[in-house]
Every structure is written in structure tokens, then in C-alpha cells.
Amino acid sequence: MLYRLLGRKRINKIFKVLYYLTLTLPPKDFVPFFSLSLYIYSHKPNKRKHCFIFWIMATKLLLTFAICRLIVTVGLTLEPTELLRLGLTVDPFDVESASVDFGLMTKVEPLAVLRPSSAKDVAQLVKAAYESSHGFTVSARGHGHSINGQAQTGTGVVVQMSGVGSGGKPRVWGGDMYVDVWGGELWIDVLKSCLAYGLAPKSWTDYLYLSVGGTLSNAGISGQAFHHGPQISNVHELDVVTGKGELMTCSKEQNPELFHAVLGGLGQFGIITRARISLEPAPQRVRWIRVLYSNFSAFTKDQEYLISLHGNQKFDYVEGFVIVDEGLINNWRSSFFSPRNPVKISSLGSNNNGGVLYCLEITKNYHESTAETIDQEIEALLKKLNFIPTSVFTTDLPYVDFLDRVHKAELKLRSKGMWEVPHPWLNLFVPKSKIADFDRGVFKGILGNKTSGPILIYPMNKNKWDGKSSVVTPDEDVFYLVAFLRSALDNGEETQSLEYLTNQNRQILKFCAEDGMKVKQYLPHYKTQSEWKEHYGSKWDRFQRMKMKFDPRHILASGQNIFTPTFLSSSNMMVMDIPIPIKQKARESIDF
């Protein structure tokens, strides 16, 4: 009604005037309206009509304030009506959700949150940031599984890419064996869409409730990576919104610089709004096998042998994990073993190896029509391995159940209140030549006999990784992922506290540096640009050039702490992108 009476242009002018008032009027000034209305309602029954008038006034003022705060965020480059159409919100629930992540170690509140319905919405927001006179940052958030606040920002807008209605459903192209998916789509939903056509992506992560854009901005690895490479090696094409607000399609042939920069680029060069993922025929079932080792050399020798095999005469998935205390092998992630028949470390000869065991985890995919031959194929492969003979554990399950195995563990942890806890994870790529030193110094040294979570270890072939991507790996043909996937518990036990585990991570990194191991962090987290330069090594110059080309104002993914936004000069750094410990009171980057 108001727009019909005054007209759109006049209303927009009014909002622009209110914008300047908002800069000096704190939200607490609106509180008396609510307090007064509640008092009247409670103590003056005959004045309740006035109560509702006050309430409506306060509500309208707060709505006006919210719109004006959005204008503060994006400047005056967009009209207020356009801000509302975009879906920008300062709703406390949305802001709170965007201020934390899976790591639960930092909290940074954005100025606003965008829930886009299309790539155009994302492009329009980023373009507004790029053209804004005073500037603001834009950080894409998938399913919120960052560890150290990488998708957070206190100086701009978080784009919530995941969610119902965003970007449309995956489109499967069976004849061409690929699927087009929205950047915020979860891998579990990609899997379900593809299985309807008897197809599936080739490379996975262990946990499927991650966004496509999120894993492709890092690499995306699991036990299939030795053969298919990481997820970024299985992408045909991308649609990307650059830091200039340009929506560009890229591939190895079209805009190749952007394509290679974005894959594994930690969100620095653009926001992935669409990905074209390579597919293969989906198997029906999986034979899942675990065998144990007390000798680290035999364990790694067998892992390296298995990832060298090709064709049908190989396992389809090769991973492993380290067991340094008896409880771990029967824990939530290892529910593979029967509770009625728990594995006892002491009965498997680990006492002669510093109390440490190593578990090789392998699978063979098959179709029900070939079930008769699968046992012979597996037996032939197992005969060439040197595991403890009495330690073979086998189960059989549908393909989708194997891929979604960690989610089942998540549900168990949630039921016990042990999922939403701090996760001081540390993921390292360790060169093959240094993995034995790592075992002696870390698994049998720094860790002691407590882990507070799974420790994964498995090798990958470097030739399955595209050297043109932004990801950094060790300079050896074979390197290992070592992942400390630990949870901090506030249960009074020092070795499970966040402080203890964080300090232990520092000890591990210090040991690697002093030993000259030349490890590289996967899902890296550094606080200074000099550390980032050391991390990227020979790739740094190109990384920096691509940043200047595609995000010259350093608008995107500022939570990574690689580049400082250009509008944050030393004289106007009023709000910083530095996370605070989550136990402290949240910093109010927007007092609303």
C-alpha cells in the first residue's frame, strides 16, 4: 500500500535517508518501544489498544533498521527493494548459523546472510561488493563443515549455498556420463539423483553431507583417490562467479586459467555455482574388508602395492587407520566390528610394537550377477598381503550404505550429544619417503596412548592429481594422507580437552618442520601470509596473479586469511575477520 501511495523512487529515497540515520542509531534504542508495550499489556488492560500501536511501531522500526543495515552492508549500489528481492537477511537465526562451523572453535558473525535462488543472485551480490565505494566481503558457505572459520566473515555477507530451493535439482546426462549440479548441493543428494540412472560419481569423500562447491574448493578425497584421483580430477566444467561479479563458464578448454585456479583454490577466485561431474556405472554391492598389522613397514608396503594395481585386478577403495588405544578399534567409526566380538589389541601382538596397530581398509565393488566370482578375486588379492592372519574381518552391504557409512556414525554421536563439540582436526600430506619417520615420531611418540578420535592414513598417486590446480601436494610420486579427526570433550579429562589436542597438533607440526619432512596441510589453516607463501611454494606467484585477475579487491573467502580485503586499510579496520574462541562472547559485528 505504501509503495502505491508514494511510489517506488520516493520510498527508496526515504530508505537512503534512513540509511545515514542507521549509522548512528544503535538497535538498543528500539528496546524501549517493546518494553513499554509489554508493560502496558501487563498492567493496563484498558490501554491494550495502545500496546498494539507501540508494538507495531517498534516492529516497523526494526524492519526499517534491518533494511538499512543491509544498505550499510552493500552500500548504496542496490536499491532497498532490490536488497529484499535478493533475499539478504539479518535474521538472528540465520546470522547465528552462519557464524559457526563444524570445528566449533571460532565464531564470527556476518553483517547479513544471502540465500540465493540462482547463480544470478550470487553474481549480483558479488558485483555490488566489487563496485561498492566502501566495500564488503562475500564468503560462500556450503554445509558448514569448515574447521577453522574459513567460510566466516565479519565484514560482509555469507552466501548460504546449501538449502532447499537453491539452484535446482541435479541433472543427470546418462548418455554423456556426467551430472550438472548446483554448487551448494550435498554429495548425498548427488548420489541419490545419479543412482536413479544406475550411475554414480567416481571419487568421493568419506562423509557425504558436504557441498559440491566446498569439496571442489579443497580437493575432495577418499579411498578411491588412488585410482580416480580426487574429486577435482573428475570435473568437466564449472560455472563460477568471480570476485568481480562475473558469471563465467570454465573448463580445460574454456577459460582454463579460472578453471584450474578455482579447483582446490579455497574459494579465493570465485564461487562455484555449477559443476559438471564425471560419472560411471554404479555397482550394486560392496565387500568391505579390514585386516590388521602390527608392523608399520609391512602395512605401508601393502598399501603402496595395492595402489599400484590397475584394471579389475585391484581393490576399488584403499584406506587405513592407526590404533593407539584399545578402545578406538571398537569405537563409533569402527562399528564395522561386532560388539559381541570386540578386537583386543593385546591379543594381536601390539605390545611388541609400542602398543600400536594399523588397520588396512579395502573394498571390492560388484554386481549381483558377478557375486559367484567376487570371493575368488578377493582371495587372490589378499594372498599377496602380509597382515596378521587371524585378523580378517569382512562384511557385505549395498553400495549406497557403504558410501554413507559415516553418516550412520554421526547419528549415533548426535544421540549421545557428542557431535556438536569442538573438532581440532589436522590433515597432512606426508611424502612417502618420510612416512616411517612420521610413524616413529608421532604415532609411537607424540600421541602416547590416547587419540580422542580416528587417525586415517592411506597413500595416493600424484599422477592422478592435476598439477595445474591450486592444490599443493608433496613433490613425490606417492604421498600419504594422515588425518587426525579428533573431538574435544569437556569431561574433565585433560587429554581430551581442546587445549591439549590443539597443543598436540602444534607439536606434530613442529616435529615435521624440525625433521624437514616437507609435509603439506590439506584443508590448510595459517594465520599469516608468509606461512601461506611457504605452503604454496613455487605455486605462490601464480596463485597471487590469479587473485589479482579474478578477485582484485580481495572480496572472496576472507576467512582463509590469505589476502586482506583492499578496503580494510590500517585506518579503517573497524571490523576484522579474525575469529574469536567460541567460548568467549560473540563479537557483535552487527549489534542487532
From TrEMBL:
Its cofactor is FAD. InterPro entries: Cytok_DH_C_sf (IPR016170), Cytokinin_DH_FAD/cytokin-bd (IPR015345), FAD-bd_PCMH (IPR016166), FAD-bd_PCMH-like_sf (IPR036318), FAD-bd_PCMH_sub1 (IPR016167), FAD-bd_PCMH_sub2 (IPR016169), FAD-linked_Oxase-like_C (IPR016164), FAD-linked_Oxidoreductases_BP (IPR050432). Residues 106-282 form the FAD-binding PCMH-type domain. GO terms for molecular function: cytokinin dehydrogenase activity; FAD binding; oxidoreductase activity. Its EC number is 1.5.99.12. GO terms for biological process: cytokinin metabolic process. Pfam families: Cytokin-bind (PF09265), FAD_binding_4 (PF01565). It comes from the Eukaryota. It catalyses: N(6)-dimethylallyladenine + A + H2O = 3-methyl-2-butenal + adenine + AH2. Keywords: FAD, Flavoprotein, Glycoprotein, Membrane, Oxidoreductase, Signal, Transmembrane, Transmembrane helix. The chain crosses the membrane at residues 52-72. Belongs to the oxygen-dependent FAD-linked oxidoreductase family. PANTHER family: CYTOKININ DEHYDROGENASE 5, GULONOLACTONE OXIDASE. This is cytokinin dehydrogenase. The lineage of its organism: Eukaryota, Viridiplantae, Streptophyta, Embryophyta, Tracheophyta.
